């Protein structure tokens, strides 16, 4: 009891707190008792205090091995703020000149310094090792210890040299700390640091205050994020992007939309990077757009949202980055934008790496995909990944729990999966098991002659998404396990074998359906858009469109397409300028047809006392329109379209996508010079007449069906461009 009181006294004296959080006290006691200690404590749990307080209480200097220069500066500044003497904490890394390093060494020799932060690269330098041999080291702390493991999300080979170097300096107790580690990564860390007998302290990974959401990533992602930020005014947020270029581009997009944002990535000038980080910490700027280089150990408690522009490479990375939100226990929204093609891109980046590294990377991506596509509680999936069971059926704070999907019975499917895994002696991955059940002939199936198994093809009526959902949810239920060390082989657990003896109802929710890319930015908005919020206004506008079409003798879709009307009946544009924010409405079209529509909408809004949603015009930066400008200029100069495609690096169909976007937005162009070269005159006339006189829609499939096989898809698209340009613009 007395020791506990003494610890509380020391905590109050040095840091001003009256109580410890979670496992902090037990961890500190372990270090004071001279034991090797492993600490798994999620971001925001107070890891730093676990070594800061003992360093102040023990004789000598604690050596903290830490990966990021920015993190060291932040930690040292924090420690100095608790002490009267700046010498209490120092760091040694490549940012210091010789005079500064000599000053640090003098303070250490004099006994002032209780905490010394070193980068692993600095630790390997002979002169530093020789100096540290003369220092009285109280203990070693390895922060961000997951960097040791190639299964972690931030593997750094130099971390694997820590143990031999600290053995050379002096044998002292060692504490390893990380915010993210699966059981596999934890084992790797302890083995590599030679601390298999360490006292282990694990805190729960559940951050109840964080809201998790996965959104479909399409071409409107910039607009969605701008809207999100503008609807959270005055709140601090981080937007993570995978590439440095995307960081810089998106920071410019935010600035163009009057959002005060700064960029941060490892390729920036050190001073600029440091200034941007400080501006964020000091509240001079609310939004930082960054690569994952930003934020490790940044102790800003009131980050209210973390947005992932791109899906991260691993769930460890995702968990740590989202963990920077709501560290004070308050609101923390975590929104990630997901498109399967981003994962394919990440997989391509791995090519050229050693095969084992590629396999590890692929599995980490597979887990990320499973998280994104699953319709199960996000918390349950995340915590299961980190080896923790979450027993609540509905967490009430993620998109899947707030919008639960209907469950379907999957007992027979589960039995098929478990029997097949068992039959194959736990030696194959999920994809192979699904291929067998669906009856697919692959090279691997033929190699192992699995086409001869009785189960082959018994599940061909179910698609792969359902089978994947069953496997993922069977793992969460504890019936299956994945052997990550052996490239993700599926294993049936004792609980799975028991289930086969006595099967009971097993209900699953189907995975979320993330349809691929929804068309290029500013492409014509065709069918499938969500219904209008205001059906009365939508109906009135359709009547107006019909009246104008009759007056001008053109089909109604030439004026505005249905999805454009739906968007108008949702956001209520009341000026011609505002109308240009509507998908499929460019400046030309808004000026030509817009006046009557905005007057009608304004009247409707006034008469029905409608409160309009805040108008958010997402401005793009100049670069975004460079391609379209260059296409229009080339057409003006009568350059053949196939030559334009070649010089812009586009497939011909992609070029037509761009040209369609241009004309549907209201810009008039003339491609007669090209049409007359490549299409018979009578074909042009017949297709044109179809759109002008016969069709009720501009749908390509409808035109192909009506016009028949005499006309190619390209011919129809080209003449449709001519028609829309002449009639609508």
Write down the overall geometry: globular
The first-level CATH class name of the largest domain: Alpha Beta
Q: Compute the gyration radius: what is it?
A: 31 Å
Q: CATH fold name of the largest domain, please?
A: Rossmann fold
What's the multimeric state? single chain
Contiguous runs where pLDDT drops below 50 for at least 5 residues:
517-530
Please tell me the overall pLDDT. Answer: 85
Number of domains: 5
Share in β-strands? 5-15%
Separation of termini? 83 Å
Please tally the β strands and state the result: 17
Q: Considering DSSP H and I runs of 4 or more, what fraction of the residues is helical?
A: 40-55%
Strand order of the largest sheet: 3-4-2-5-6-1-7
At CATH's second level, what is the architecture of the largest domain? 3-Layer(aba) Sandwich
Continuous helix count: 34
Q: What does the largest sheet look like?
A: 7 strands, parallel
């Amino acid at each position: 009891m007395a020791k506990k009181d003494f610890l509380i006294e020391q905590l109050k004296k040095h840091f001003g707190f009256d109580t410890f959080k979670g496992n902090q006290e037990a961890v500190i006691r372990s270090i004071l008792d001279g034991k090797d200690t492993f600490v798994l404590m999620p971001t925001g749990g107070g890891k730093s205090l676990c070594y800061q307080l003992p360093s102040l209480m023990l004789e000598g200097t604690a050596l903290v091995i830490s990966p990021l220069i920015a993190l060291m500066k932040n930690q040292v500044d924090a420690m100095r703020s608790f002490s009267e003497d700046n010498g209490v904490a120092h760091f040694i890394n490549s940012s210091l000149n010789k005079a500064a390093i000599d000053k640090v060494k003098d303070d250490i020799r004099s006994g002032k310094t209780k905490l010394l932060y070193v980068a692993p690269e600095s630790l390997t330098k002979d002169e530093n090792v020789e100096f540290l041999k003369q220092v009285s080291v109280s203990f070693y702390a390895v922060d961000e210890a997951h960097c040791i493991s190639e299964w972690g999300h931030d593997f750094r080979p130099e971390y694997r040299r820590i143990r031999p170097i600290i053995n050379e300096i002096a044998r002292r107790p060692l504490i390893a700390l990380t915010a993210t580690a699966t059981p596999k990564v934890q084992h790797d860390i302890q083995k590599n640091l030679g601390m298999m007998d360490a006292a282990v302290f694990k805190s729960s990974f559940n951050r109840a205050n964080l809201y998790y959401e996965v959104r479909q990533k399409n071409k409107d992602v910039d607009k969605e994020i701008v809207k999100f930020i503008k609807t959270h005014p005055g709140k601090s947020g981080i937007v993570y992007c995978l590439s440095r270029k995307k960081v810089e581009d998106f920071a410019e997009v935010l600035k163009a939309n009057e959002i005060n944002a700064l960029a941060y990535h490892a390729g920036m000038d050190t001073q600029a990077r440091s200034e941007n980080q400080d501006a964020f910490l000091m509240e001079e700027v609310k939004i930082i757009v960054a690569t994952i280089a930003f934020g490790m150990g940044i102790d800003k408690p009131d980050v209210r949202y973390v947005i992932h522009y791109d899906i991260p490479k691993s769930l460890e990375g995702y968990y740590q980055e989202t963990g920077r939100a709501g560290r004070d226990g308050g609101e923390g929204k975590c929104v990630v934008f997901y498109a399967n093609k981003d994962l394919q891109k990440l997989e391509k980046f791995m090519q050229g790496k050693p095969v084992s590294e590629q396999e590890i990377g692929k599995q980490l991506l597979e887990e990320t995909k499973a998280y994104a596509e699953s319709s199960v509680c996000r918390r349950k999936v995340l915590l299961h990944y980190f080896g923790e069971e979450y027993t609540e059926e509905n967490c009430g704070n993620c998109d899947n729990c707030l919008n639960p999907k209907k469950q379907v019975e999957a007992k027979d499917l589960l039995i098929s999966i478990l029997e097949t895994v068992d039959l194959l002696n736990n030696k194959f991955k999920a994809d192979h098991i699904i291929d067998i059940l669906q009856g697919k002939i692959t090279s691997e199936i033929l190699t192992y002659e699995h086409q001869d198994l009785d189960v082959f093809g018994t599940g061909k009526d179910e698609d792969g998404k359902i089978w994947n959902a069953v496997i993922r949810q069977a793992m969460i239920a504890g019936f299956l396990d994945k052997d990550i060390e052996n490239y993700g082989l599926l294993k049936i657990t004792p609980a799975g074998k028991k289930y086969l003896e006595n099967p009971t109802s097993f209900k699953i929710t189907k995975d979320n359906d993330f349809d691929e890319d929804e068309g290029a930015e500013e492409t014509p908005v065709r069918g499938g858009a969500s219904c209008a919020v205001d059906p009365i206004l939508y109906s009135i506008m359709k009547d107006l469109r019909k009246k104008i079409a009759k007056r001008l003798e053109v089909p109604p879709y030439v004026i505005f397409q249905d999805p454009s009307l739906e968007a108008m009946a949702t956001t209520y544009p009341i000026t011609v300028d505002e109308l240009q924010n509507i998908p499929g409405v460019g400046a030309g079209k808004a000026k030509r047809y817009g006046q009557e529509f905005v007057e009608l909408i304004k009247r409707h809004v006034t008469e029905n006392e409608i409160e309009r949603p805040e108008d958010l015009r997402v401005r793009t930066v100049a670069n975004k329109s460079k391609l379209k400008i260059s296409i229009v200029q080339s057409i003006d100069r009568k350059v053949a379209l196939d030559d334009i495609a070649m010089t812009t690096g586009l497939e011909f169909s992609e070029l037509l996508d761009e040209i369609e976007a241009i004309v549907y937005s209201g810009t008039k162009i003339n491609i007669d010079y090209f049409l007359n070269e490549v299409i018979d005159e009578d074909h042009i006339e017949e297709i044109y007449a179809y759109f002008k006189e016969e069709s009720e829609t501009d749908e390509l499939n409808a035109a192909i069906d009506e016009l028949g096989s005499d006309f190619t898809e390209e011919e129809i698209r080209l003449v449709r461009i001519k028609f829309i340009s002449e009639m609508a613009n």
